Amino acid sequence: MLARADKAQSGAAAKDGRPQVDRCGRDKLQEGPQLHDGHSRKVFDAFFEQIAVKGREPIDLVSADGARWVDDAMKEWVAHALRCTDTFHIVQWTAELLDELCRQSWRAAVQKAKAAPKGRRAPKGRPQHP
Q1: Helices (H), the chain
Q2: What is the pTM of this model?
Q3: N or C: more exposed end of the chain, with fewer CB within 10 A?
């Protein structure tokens, strides 16, 4: 999950004045809510139950995979935040799609080769011109 803090809140900004993006991880949460092991709606809810409404306000972006329950959970806890798909899953899904396309192309080529007429081969040697 990503939380984007305004310049005044974070005390630091990028050189061009944009607000910094802070990762909500163990380093940021040692004094506050604890992270939970696992991955499910139950874990998502347990995390946000520990955070007061004021603590949820600065969260603008939520990075998640393609689980369908994430949208419902975000509507409940951080309705103002935008959902982002993490790059790991984008690369994973793209690779899986390319693998499937490669398999389909290979199967089509094999089917075409099996359907080609058999028994007639080109004569050996140089082709004869009329």
Answers
A1: 7-10, 26-29, 41-49, 53-56, 69-77, 87-115
A2: 0.51
A3: C
